[in-house]
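Quick check before the chapter quiz. The format below is the same one you will see on the exam, so make sure you can read both the input and the output lines.
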Amino acid sequence: MPAGRKFSIIIPSWNNLPFLKMCIASLRRNSKYSHQIIVHANESSDGTAGWLAKENIPFTASRENIGICRAFNQALPLAKNNMVMYMNDDMYALPQWDEALAAAIPESPAWMLSSTMIEPRESRNGCVVVADYGSTLESFRENDLLKDFPGMTKPDWSGASWPPVMTPRQLLMDVGGFSEEFSPGMYSDPDLAMKLWQRGVRYFRGAGKSLVYHFQSKSTNRIPLNNGRLTFMKKWGITPSFFYKEYLRMGQPWTGTLAEASDSLAWVNRLSVRLRTALR
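Here is the expected output.
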């Protein structure tokens, strides 16, 4: 098995064992390559840690829910492969997902890649394929999805930062993983992408043939959410939406390494941010 095609896949999970089992089963069944799967078990009052131990899956654990950012960072030292992915536990990996993602990896050591999500409900995320195959495990139409998904691929797109998201392990270590001031996790995705941008990364590619089904919000709807948008604005001086649109060109057709953002537009956005934060 080519070592360069193996990923270390980190999955934070919070008392979501049925979905976690489904996610891991899909990775085992539908991956071409043999990847390392790592889980952080938040709280684990539903038996997650015991099941992981029985399955010989490496994991870290916390007695309480510490959120996605801290969970990922605690699990990161267990990663053995050069390519590290963050994946949600309510995702189902479809066949060829990893082969298509591996094919998008550049020779450069500085990059970020995303798979393409299929979701059951409309969203403002233009990188998503909207198709309803169930929003619960009981309603999940797995066989229909496996039959239909080849017709759902799309052209590669710019702006990778949505999970499943992958980047070189050394880059993650260099920037300190996810920023824990965004705990439990809202807007930590664009923050990580911005940290990579600040280190010179300009290769943010979404693989249109790497598909995962996402059941949507199986953890975030159970907890109070942080005001990550405001945290991002205060930290970086621009809005997340401006970063996605003008820096990452989120959702636009993939054309290669990104150009720099317009300084004049960035100045206007920073002025807007200062006004908004001053009024809070």
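If your answer matched, good. The chain has a mean pLDDT of 90.
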